[in-house]
Amino acid sequence: MYERVKRMKLEAKIGLFVILGLVALFMLSTQVSKLGSFEQKGYEISAYLDDATGLELQSKVTMNGVAIGEVSKIYIDGRRVRLVLSIQPQVRIPKDSLIVVSQESVLGAKNINILAGESKENIEENGVLKHSKQYAAFDETSDSVNAAASELQLLLKDFRNVLDKQRQEEIKEMIGAFKDVGVNLDTIVLENRAALKAAIENMRDMGAGFSQTATTVNKDLPQIMARLDSLTARLDSIALMLDNKLPVAMDKFIAIENNVSGLIDENRQSLKNTLVSADSFFSSGENAFSKVDSILANFTVSELQVAARADYMINDSAMKTTAGIIYLPNPETYYMLDMISTDDYSNVGELPKVHDKSETYVSAQYGKRFDNLLLRAGVIESQGGFGIDYFANNDAWKISFDAYDFNAVNDVRGTNAHYRIGVKYRMLKHLELFGGWDNIANSESQTFYFGVGMRFIDNNLKYVLGSASGLK
Fold first, then answer.
1. How many CB atoms lie within 10 A of CB 89?
2. Rounded mean pLDDT of 417-446?
3. Confidence bin at 288 (pLDDT 50/70/90)
């Protein structure tokens, strides 16, 4: 009996100890933030919040995740909640720091976290943290998630109502159509594999030709630049000579003018009779001079070129067509007239559509050729501009640079001048291939292009025109 009582007392003690341990563990897991700090007291500062839900006295205060104190007081100050924070004496808090209510876990209590600022000035004792940031509480977040889930459920329900059997069949047919398109594309690729391979090889050969042309241009470019420098030096010399001699020439011209005016005043009647006689002489000799002019025209060494081309502007997905005439009275002089039809980009905020009427521009230029270099100037696409052409391989290759439309009138998608670099290759006697980079200085409208054209050169047409003028 005594042993039994002794055993029951021992079991009761063990059970009581286990119960106390469980209670202590439960309190530690749910109320660990309420145990308070046993560290030494420091200085106090204040902070304001719009909502202090979940905060209690002795709630932990951390800065960048490190415990630095506790909440000593919580009370209402006007419409906001005022917190009095007890901070460890060795901790200094910048004035522009931010106070945030945070929660370590779902079951844990809330605490105050201070995000340290960049200010070099610190908050003194009884100072106030003016900046705070409020995060949504866990229950508010849960309500938001539940509301979003409800909205998603309603959306799925509406979507199921819309997708009736007819719509489902249409979707199936659409998927089947896409599948058929893929099969057809595979078939086309297989049937034209050889043609595609040949086209790729042609593009490679063309690229090799461009590379060889670029090498030739790089080789001849220093000589061209040297000639340009020499030409510039000659022009500077001529300008200096004119500056020195022009005032003297003007003085002489004024003196001659004064002498002529005096002679005219003294011999007015005699000059009048002479002019009447001269007018009769020139009237009778006009027909003779016309015949002489016709005969001289028949012996003029000239050349007439008629050309047409079509370019595809890659980024604009549009065609640009050009037709023109080039007249060469001699191998060094060029008179060029072109008509250009292209999309209209001159309206602000209104880009051209597929069926819109194209805009027509006119180019009229005068050119002077020096060996393989042609300098051009005049009107390019109805705007003032200039250009440079370099010829190679007996004029089979031509590299061109154009600059015009300096006020961006024709194309309002950009604000810079219109610059274009192009390459032309005469493949056969009359067939020409084109390629290049257009509107380089304007990123919104720049594009690569390629094209094909025809050119006819007639050295005998001048004799036909001369003969026709002689028959008048």
1. 12
2. 93
3. low
Q: Which SS3 state, helix, strand or coil, does residue 415 take?
A: coil
| Tokens coding 90 | 């060795």
Kindly report the three-state secondary structure assignment for every residue of 150-173: HHHHHHHHHHHHHCCHHHHHHHHH
State phi, psi for 364 to the nearest 5 degrees.
-135, 115
**HSE-CB for 432 with a 13 A CA cutoff:** 22
Give the per-residue pLDDT at 471: 43
Q: Report how far apart, in Å, the C-alpha atoms of 281 and of each of 274, 285, 290, 292 are.
A: 11, 6, 15, 17
Residues facing residue 447 across a β-bridge = 438
The Cα-based distances of 310 to 291, 292, 313, 450 in angstroms read 42, 42, 10, 9
Question: Positive or negative, the Cα torsion across 215, 436, 315, 416?
Answer: positive
Nearest-angstrom CA–CA distance, 277 and 322: 53
**Sequence-distant contacts of 204-212: CB under 8 A, at least 24 apart:** 209/425, 210/423, 210/435
* Domain edges within the chain: 1-30, 32-139, 163-266, 267-296, 303-468
What integer pLDDT is reported at residue 468 of this predicted model? 46
The architecture (CATH level 2) of 303-468 comes to Beta Barrel (2.40)
What the block records as the tokens of 173 is 């047919």
Tokens 């001529």, located at residue: 238
Tokens representing 9?
A: 């007392």
What's the CA gap between 187 and 292, in Å, rounded?
A: 72
Name the amino acid, one letter, at 61.
V
CB-CB neighbours of 184 under 10 Å: 10
Q: What is the reported pLDDT for 397?
A: 95
Chain segment 133-153, per-residue pLDDT in tens: 766 555 556 667 777 778 887
Helices within 267-327 (DSSP H only)? 268-298
Task: Tokens 């005049």: give the residue.
Answer: 378
